[in-house]
């Protein structure tokens, strides 16, 4: 897989973006459906790629009304790290709940979550590599950026085109939350495109 970096030429000018935004947002919501995996109602993972990251940047520019080229370049630089590199998958882990007290409690319980997440591809366990670890405090954060560095065997398995029969799952084995979620054929097919 070649790294698909985001450049200034990928960014749509704000007036043009706003004209087609409603349709683009609808398409991205649909696109992300196959790329989001839920552990439960509070925890999910979104597998990121150039499309999802570009969408985030465009939405930030729209929400903050940004047109300054220097600021746009700063956002591109910050968010480009979320695009998967060669032989890896990239994801954002979200811990979310509407009730603040419940969220604070959950973030405390899930301290150390960054040491307890794996992708299992046909029996091969690939530990997630988190951008940051939070061992120095009594709680974790609600958003984590992470990568799964893939072996050649895992890539070949994911990309073999037989998505209905593949054995791929996410495993969260934290002492306060032990969940295994099998990836759907749609999710595997979407990730295989990232590796093509």
From TrEMBL:
InterPro entries attached to this UniProt entry: DUF3501
Name of the protein in question: DUF3501 domain-containing protein
Organism: Tumebacillus algifaecis
